[in-house]
Automatic annotation (TrEMBL):
GO biological process: cell-cell signaling
Residues annotated as domain Connexin cysteine-rich: 141-208
Membrane topology value: Multi-pass membrane protein
Predominant location: other
Source organism of the structure: Xiphorhynchus elegans
Family: Belongs to the connexin family.
PANTHER family: CONNEXIN, GAP JUNCTION BETA-5 PROTEIN
Listed GO CC annotations: connexin complex
Coiled-coil stretches: none
General function of this protein: One gap junction consists of a cluster of closely packed pairs of transmembrane channels, the connexons, through which materials of low MW diffuse from one cell to a neighboring cell.
Subcellular location: Cell junction, Gap junction; Cell membrane
UniProt keyword list: Cell junction, Cell membrane, Gap junction, Membrane, Transmembrane, Transmembrane helix
Name of the protein in its database record: Gap junction protein
A Pfam family of this chain: Connexin
Length: 226
């Protein structure tokens, strides 16, 4: 990973975010991305290799593992992190589009021409909607993945022993998961940080809407006095 490029990307996201957005970004980077890269991948690296069943029937262990772990935690978290950070990139792209449009206008009409966007990074017009929709999309993605995790793994926890009776297993066999307690701790930690990120996104969306409504009321009050 090119960390200098990633650092520049984070600085760009921070530049156009509110205080709530900066807190959200810090949580995602420190408590989700770094935990995923540094620790979580290693915890789940042996999930298939050390999944043991008390049978030597060929194929039984693979079938049972596929049934109880249809999608790996690691792959789900990776997909979740990708989807939840993409909307922030859309905000940066929207600002870059505004800056490029302003630059083309200055090149065509000179520095004395009327500016379309005096402050391209200010959340007004289309950029306000882009930012608001990005918040709702991020919260929606996290909610959907919380539901997916709950459907696949009840109460977000893994049992120490699972009983499998799928073919080609000859009978009901006991299968043992590698390091279930450690995996449960990491899973609950990621679920907790996801819930905090959802709350922050919804609070920031409420703040943006409330601030915009307050500004509209002030503008309408000033027009009526005039």
């Amino acid at each position: 990973m090119n960390w200098s490029m990633f650092e520049g990307l984070l600085n760009g996201v921070n530049k156009y975010s509110t205080a709530f957005g900066r807190i959200w970004l810090s949580l995602v980077f420190i408590f989700r991305l770094l935990v995923y890269v540094v620790a979580a991948e290693r915890v789940w690296s042996d999930d298939h290799k050390d999944f043991d069943c008390n049978t030597r029937q060929p194929g039984c262990t693979n079938v049972c593992f596929d049934h109880f772990f249809p999608v790996s935690h690691i792959r789900l978290w990776a997909l979740q992190l990708i989807l939840v950070t993409c909307p922030s990139l859309l905000v940066i792209m929207h600002v870059a589009y505004r800056e490029a449009k302003e630059q083309r206008l200055r090149e065509a009409g000179g520095d004395g021409c009327r500016r379309i966007y005096p402050n391209p990074g200010k959340k007004r017009g289309g950029l306000w909607w882009t930012y608001l929709l990005s918040l709702l999309f991020k919260a929606g993605v996290d909610i959907v993945f919380l539901y997916i995790f709950y459907r696949f793994y009840r109460n977000y926890t893994l049992p120490r022993v699972v009983k499998c009776e799928l073919r080609p297993c000859p009978n009901v066999v006991d299968c043992f998961i590698s390091r279930p307690t450690e995996k449960n701790i990491f899973t609950l930690f990621m679920v907790a940080t996801t819930c905090v990120c959802i709350v922050l996104s919804l609070v920031e969306a409420t703040y943006l809407v409330g601030k915009r409504c307050h500004e509209c009321l002030q503008d309408s009050g000033g027009d009526s006095r005039r």
